[in-house]
Amino acid sequence: MGKKSSSSSSAAAYLSMWRLSRGGWRYLHPSHYLKRPRRLAFLIFAFVFLNYFLWDRRTLSSAHQLKITELNQQVTSLQNQVHELKSKLRGSGVQRKIIETGDSNNSIIIKKKEGDLEDEDPISIERRQKVKEAMLHAWNSYEKYAWGEDELEPQTKNGVDSFGGLGATLVDSLDTLFIMGLKEQFQKARDWVANSLDFNKDYEASVFETTIRIVGGLLSAFDLSGDDIFLQKARDIADRLLPAWNTASGIPYNRINLENGHAQNLKWTGGNSILADSGTEQLEFIALSQRIKDPKYQQKVENVINEIHKIFPSDGLLPIYVNPHTGKTSHSTITFGAMGDSFYEYLLKAWIQGNRTETVKHYRDMWETSMKGLQSLIRKSTPSSYAYICEKTGNSLSDKMDELACFAPGMLALGSIGYGPEEAEKFLALAEELAWTCYNFYQSTPTKLAGENYFFRTGQDMTVGTPWNILRPETVESLFYLWRLTGNKTYQEWGWNIFEAFERNSHLETGYVGLKD
Is the dihedral of CA 215, 218, 222, 224 positive or negative? Predict the structure, then answer.
């Protein structure tokens, strides 16, 4: 009985569900609504409302996604600004300006941070004094034995005019004298510039060397002191250099007679202009144009970059020889060492000089392209895994790196600021790897001073190529950048070790000398 009753109950339940189901289907039949206009109107209204709601949600989702993208870009930009601000706060002078102009609360906080970095460290104070004493030692010897001449030869105590008699050491030292607070020495040098510096010389000058040492030195002195005599002299020498840019392509000749304006290239280059020599006048000539409100200097040097941009390769790596008549490169070495180095450096610094605006964005774009190319030249030694930058000719790589290429760690560290966080970290890491290699250029020799270049052979790490040392600054400059940008005092220690090696090996009673070996 129970079994039969259960079966009857199940059958009844299924029958009720079927009827309910069958009754539900009528709401999907059009005739049901044609007989009931109100329901039809309600259905149409519901359909329109539902479609509007779903479309609105989709539109909002799309707008939301665009807003998220925009906000992400803003976050990246702010992160870069924060990173840059941190770097500046570690830099000299920035904290001091904030202290002078900030409110009292901020002043106290920032002053403490400044003290943490440097002022409260007695070792840094002592070392800074030692460096100043070294500068005074070199300057006093120059003043005594070679005043007004280009260089002093400390061993013979003779002055030599290796730059045509332009007072190269004096002019190039003006900013250092000013920054170090050596007011008496600066004033005496200023008076020499005003009364004795004469550019009307029958001398074939290097456009590159004269620009970076003389034009750059005078502009730096003007910016620091505000003394107009430096700007007048800078304009005078720049006017004498300008005819070098009068070529078919606008790529300058690398030599020019300061008296008659005749320009040419050296024979050993096959009539070609050198990449670094032609692409390392932008900062000085742009600065001059801005200060005297005359665009002609800036136009000359910016045209060079525009011409190079026309032939710029996809990897951003250019051979060191460029034909000034056609504007085309010639088959030659690609290197971040001699004759290639500062072209890449100036791309980055011209972007910084232009306040990173859209107007100078092409400099940054070209630089970033070149840094991708640089990465393709990175190899590591065995067994110690020193990272180094190869040279390249055609499709062949040479495991050789100049000490001159040791500007690259500082450049990469400085340029990392313009990337997003992930790329910035990658390039800063590469900068630190290369800095370790460059520091070991020094540490690997008996004198703890670097040779001119190094070769990397399997299983031998690095071996000195050309053994001389001519007091080059590139490695120390990179260590300075890295210390300022990271706050890591290891780089200070490395720099101090190099300074002490110069004191032990190059210091004479009459100045500082290079080493043949």
Answer: positive
Identify the active-site residue in 150, 172, 277, 341.
Answer: 341
Contacts of 473 (CB under 8 A, 6+ apart): none
Tell me the DSSP string of 336-386. SSTTTHHHHHHHHHHHHHTTT-GGGHHHHHHHHHHHHHHHHTEEE-TTT--
Phi-psi category of residue 390: left, alpha or beta, with phi > 0 → left and psi -120 to 50 → alpha: beta
Q: Which two tokens stand for residue 222?
A: 């003007």
Catalytic position from the list 149, 175, 452, 461: 452
3-state secondary structure of 326: coil
CA end-to-end span of the chain: 117
Residue 452 falls in the annotated catalytic set: yes
Report strand pairing: 263-264 vs 273-274. unpaired
Residue 209 is a catalytic residue: yes
Phi-psi region of 284 (alpha: psi -120 to 50; beta: other; left: phi over 0): alpha
**Which of these is catalytic: 209, 227, 236, 239?**
209
Is 161 within 8 Å of 149 (Cβ atoms)? Answer: yes
Read out DSSP for 89-100? HHSTTHHHHHHH
pLDDT of residue 102: 34
Is the confidence at residue 52, as pLDDT, over 50? yes
Check if 191 is active-site.
Answer: no
Confidence at residue 39, expressed as pLDDT on a 0 to 100 scale:
67
pLDDT at 34: 56
- When pLDDT is cut at 50, 70 and 90, the band that residue 3 belongs to is very low
d(CA 313, CA 468): 34
Strand partners, 274: 321
DSSP states of 141-194 as a string? HHHHH-TTSSEEETTTTEEE-TTSSS-HHHHHHHHHHHHTT-HHHHHHHHHHHH
Are 215 and 285 contacting, i.e. CB atoms less than 8 angstroms apart?
yes
Residue 37: pLDDT band with limits 50, 70, 90 = low
CA neighbours closer than 13 Å in the CB half-sphere of residue 307: 24
Active-site residue, 239 included:
no
Question: What per-residue confidence (pLDDT) applies to 121?
Answer: 86
Torsion of CA 302, 324, 394, 308, to 10 degrees: 20
